[in-house]
Amino acid sequence: TPPAPPAPPGNPASSPRPPLPIPLILSDSLLETAGASLYTVPTLTAEIMAEGAVPARVYYQQFDPTCGDGTIDPNHVASWVIEHWGSNPTGWFILDYEVPHFHNLAKGLVDPNNADYIRTRDSFVAALQSLKLQFPNARWSVYGLPSLPAWFQVGGVAHTHVSIPDPQLQQIVAQRRALVQAIVDECDFVSPTIYARDAERNYPPPAA
What we know:
There is one protein chain. By secondary structure, this protein is an alpha/beta fold. The relative contact order is 0.16. The protein is 35% helix and 12% strand. Strands 3-4-5 form a three-stranded parallel beta sheet. Strands 1-2 form a two-stranded antiparallel ribbon. The two termini are 28 Å apart. The chain has helices at 42-50, 74-85, 101-110, 115-134, 166-186; strands spanning 32-33, 36-37, 57-60, 91-96, 138-142, 152-154, 157-159. The chain is built from five helices and seven strands; from the N terminus they run E-E-H-E-H-E-H-H-E-E-E-H.
């Protein structure tokens, strides 16, 4: 069992935040059918929106010129929010920082004391804390976390969720959950990446 990673910064004192309504489904795009996006079907899109669906506002890492080291500057995010939605917005906001942030987080699977892992994890935590304090009526999350790949390498053999023995799968799930738990704990909602398939050509065939 790998040692527990160092604890991230503690929660700062904050004013009470309004209760969070519980969404049923969150998606960064409408589902697709027959190879065509539902955005091309105005009637169906209108029906979905009529059910109360609301778009999330995504802050992409290319908006942040200082994120190349795997950190997040909440001041850049805050300026973007204020420019577009004012100083007291409501709604759903997602931080989409992937490269090198996800690579840095993955280093924690090998070494929970890795400096890149700790720096990126703590930067996510600090950014979320800062943004929640500044915008208490908005709701915040991080795109792609928690994450679980479709394929796993176990003993040099590729497995899917179906072919891998359950004890090993549960261990992998627990390790990946612990890797980002401090970040997820600061999120108001989760925004995982869900894909229907993953190209087998990237991996050797699963064990028979």
